[in-house]
Amino acid sequence: MDRFDRCKHTAWRRIVDQTVIIDLEGHMTYALDSSGGDIWHALDGTKGVAEIAGLTDLRPAKVDAFLSELEKRGLIVRSSDDVSTDGDPSLSAPRPSPASEEPSRNTPQEGPAILWSEKLRSAAASPGSCAFLPAQNALCNANPFS
Amino acid sequence: MPATLGLSLGPLRLLLEGSEQWIVLARHRYGSFAFESSGATDEEAFDVRIRYRALGNGPSTAQIEAARATTPNLSPDGGGWLVQGPCLTGRLEGRLLHLEGPLATFPLDSALVALWSLFEGDVILHGALAVEGDLGWLCTGPSGVGKSTLARLLPERVLCDELVGLGTPATTSSAPFEKLPKSRRSPVAHSLPFYPGRPGKAEVVGVHFLEHGSRPERHRLSPSEAFARLREQAFWPCWSESNLERAFSCLAELATKPCWRLVFRPDPDVWPVLSAPEAA
After folding, report:
1. Is the bond preceding B195 in cis, omega lying within 30 degrees of 0?
2. Residue B201 in contact with residue A145, Cβ under 8 Å?
3. pTM here?
4. Strands B123-132 and B135-140, sheet pairing
């Protein structure tokens, strides 16, 4: 039986009806709907699809598909009874497919689902803030030596 | 003996060292956030010393254009940090930062954003900070949404209009964020000197996402809607997983505060709406 756990390079918070996840390595952020969040919070490396489906009152097929999606994005790891990972989920984490810079939106009629995903804007790649554009006002333009 | 100038970014105290010409520019640039260090070089008086070596007589047009396109990046390097950008190179070791760049202060501006996350706060947000006593409201949104307009309308209330530093009192606590009492998780906002502003801080009691309109009114946002907007205005410290996680915790906590869409026109009558209690 396959079991699932959250990757160690993730951080998450439940914000009311959504669960927001940050991929600390890939610098991506995701929001899960309520059902997706229930699945996420049930992951502890000991449960398989059937048990998670029972805990969340979701159909196993939907849980399986959702877990596959999370795994594809590099947020969870799968361990099998036949494979030893030494209890370290991060060792077998698959790398996600190249992250798109454009935000993606997915608002299905029913969950579980990833509502949106987006690349984090780092301080090193932040366009637009006029704080970093020199000579923005008269004070900057003034010649202090005159 | 280099010229020196003390600079405060909220609780972060910096000692700038450089040529007389560069220090004159720095004093001119940072205004009321600067303070005379009285020649003090005591390691205990400052959190970080910044030694700036100005190259040439001033930035070229090409350098200015390059600085518009991107800001410096931090990368770990043998126990320290490398700072690299189109107009700036440097290395941070412990509490000493060596920087080289043109005779200007804008390269330092962007390095200071990184220093804030490394040494003191959780995250920097693109926004204005309006205050009343010890209470504050973050007023945020993309460039052009009205932050500077708000500052001009309410000069006694708005401390800064571009960047705000956020931290929680428990930033340096070793306890996991979730185990801290609620009172220690409430974000504190510090005004930052980009552009002319006044030093100050406040406990954040509300967040406003600014919009232009014909009359002042506000519309409540759900925490998840608020977080989606906040993350777009944050300067995420992607150079460090621990810094990134702290920034996330801070913004997630902020999203649980009363968050609003604040519609306003260029009139000071926005203040009663901006500062109204949650239940109003």
Report:
1. yes
2. no
3. 0.83
4. antiparallel
Pick the residue with more confidence: B172 or B192? Answer: B192
Q: How confident is the model at residue B176 (pLDDT cuts 50, 70, 90)?
A: low
CA distance B27 to B147: 24
State the complex-level ipTM: 0.79
Chain B touched by A107 (CB under 8 Å): no
For the four alpha carbons of B99, B88, B64 and B62, in that order, the dihedral sign comes to positive
Q: Do A17 and B224 touch (CB under 8 A)?
A: yes
Rounded CA separation A88/B100 (Å) = 43
Give me the residue from B64, B227, B236 closest to A20, CB to CB: B227
Alpha-carbon distances, residue B65 vs B68, B76, B86, B162, B268 (angstroms): 5, 27, 9, 20, 36
Q: Which amino acid is at A54?
A: G
Q: Check if the beta carbon of residue A77 is closer than 8 Å to that of residue A68.
A: no
Average pLDDT, chain B: 85
Distance from CA of B194 to the nearest CA of A (A): 6
Rounded distance between C-alpha atoms, residue A76 and residue A92, angstroms: 9
Contacting residues of B for A29, CB less than 8 Å apart: 231
CA distance B193 to chain A (A): 9
Neighboring chain A residues of B71 at a CB cutoff of 8 Å: 123-126, 132
* pLDDT value at residue B104: 85
Phi, psi of B140 (to 5 degrees): -130, 170
Does the beta-carbon distance from B236 to A27 stay under 8 Å?
A: yes
Q: Check: CB of residue A21 under 8 Å from CB of residue A40.
A: yes
The larger pLDDT score, comparing residue A135 to residue B3, is at: B3
**Is A124 in contact with B71 (CB distance < 8 Å)?**
yes
Token output for B126: 């693109």
Supply the pLDDT for residue B157: 94
Estimate the crossing angle of helix A34-42 against helix A49-56, to 10 degrees: 130
Contact B163 A128 (CB under 8 A): no
Euclidean distance between CA atoms B33 and B31, whole angstroms: 5
Which tokens sit at A19?
A: 């669960």
What is the spatial distance between Cα A63 and Cα B108, in angstroms, rounded to a whole number? 50
What residues in A contact B114, CB-CB < 8 Å? 123
What average pLDDT score do residues B175-196 get?
A: 69
pLDDT higher than threshold 50 for residue B116 = yes
